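In response to a reviewer's request, we include the raw inputs and outputs for one of the modeled complexes. The four entities were modeled together in a single run.
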Amino acid sequence: MSLHFNKETLLEYVEMIFPQIRGEFQIDHLDNGLLIVRLLVHERHLRPGGTVSGPSMFSLADISVYLSVLAAIGPEALTVTTNCSLDFMRKPVSEADLLAHCKLLKLGKSLAVGDVLIYSDGMDKPVARATMTYSIPQAK
Amino acid sequence: MSLHFNKETLLEYVEMIFPQIRGEFQIDHLDNGLLIVRLLVHERHLRPGGTVSGPSMFSLADISVYLSVLAAIGPEALTVTTNCSLDFMRKPVSEADLLAHCKLLKLGKSLAVGDVLIYSDGMDKPVARATMTYSIPQAK
Amino acid sequence: MSLHFNKETLLEYVEMIFPQIRGEFQIDHLDNGLLIVRLLVHERHLRPGGTVSGPSMFSLADISVYLSVLAAIGPEALTVTTNCSLDFMRKPVSEADLLAHCKLLKLGKSLAVGDVLIYSDGMDKPVARATMTYSIPQAK
Amino acid sequence: MSLHFNKETLLEYVEMIFPQIRGEFQIDHLDNGLLIVRLLVHERHLRPGGTVSGPSMFSLADISVYLSVLAAIGPEALTVTTNCSLDFMRKPVSEADLLAHCKLLKLGKSLAVGDVLIYSDGMDKPVARATMTYSIPQAK
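The model returned the following structure tokens for the whole complex.
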């Protein structure tokens, strides 16, 4: 399977359709089997004690699977999340970026399933895991 | 079971420990069996097309279960989310507030489980559902 | 919405297409908003200590949502489970039947979502909750 | 971390405490990072059309995480499942065994989280994925 984007064009495309995420994310790696997305952690992502908030981790997991699906199927802005499960397993390291390692487990005609492990930059055990299902609109 | 807070004191307490959420949420109803939390939808919660974003719905579900647990056990700021599952079922109504209806299904010594249905204000079918598990720190 | 089956014809239909479940389940209640399915607990459903096994509870939740979908859309034997989340919250009562209370939260053209609370017969707090997503094959 | 069991003693121990699963499972691989459990597929695991049933896949995922936890912490028969999420992604191959590849993502003092990919023997894409949370009883 060849990808429809590279790291640069994929981020550009998503920031064009979702301008509000500009400056939030960076793509560290993209190939057929793995996408690595970095959440550039700022003050607004933190909870008291310096830990990254749950909604920030949800956003990171969600965008990672979305980007993986787009890379595989090409621009389909209407793709929507239908289901997610998340396990929060460890406290993120204070003030470190978060890295989401995302693999597509399924890319069907109408449903895609992506698996995500989230790490604090520099830590070897995951802080969270997520699975996201995306519904892909049918070509008319 | 008597509650440790009423609508006003519960919101005050949570806004004190999480000042960054001030102005985001309102508590519409609180009794032993049901908590209703309102997300005051602003521009920053929206996605293109006027729909409320996934992370905003995650935040609303998360805070609703957190508030339900605090109402039941009293101030325990360290309570943390360990797991969640979410189903996004319908597109939220453009620019309407979201209402989370939350019930605690379990309140054990170390784990609490809350179930949430999220509605667009004025709509009778839920836009999303969520289940959240919280871990409750053990008294020393 | 009128239903395609009543309690008796719904069970008959499902036992015809899945003969291996004969004698396992009973339908206690069926209307537009709620389906109650009873797992007739036998020795083979138990774990040491007399508690009902996880797979038995999964089966009960799964069949409950399947039956709810069939009641609403009519005979579509190919409908398949795509996702489930389950929380096991309390130990089932030894040797009591289990009752699944199932509500359809969404019935779309291609996806249905059902929510289930499972009770030990005679107990007022749920032993488990489940959400199941079914994919509905498109009419050709 | 050294394991408390090898492939043979782990299966023996679990079949001793759950005699009803004798002959269902086999352990193909066990080391610090990965456990592979085989479901020996029989007639009773099948649905019409020859596909393996959902409850059979749930059982396989559940036992895999249970075995992984026991291998890591030693015999603790009381360990219980508190949460699971499952995605069913492809139809299993008719009459092939199923293989669960299980990794422990977290092994805390009170909670363990295991991730499972399920394959039809001989197929390279997963038929299902699961995450299971186990609660570990506290030493008195």
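As requested, we also summarize the result in words. Helices of chain A lie at 7-17, 54-73. Chain A has a mean pLDDT of 92.
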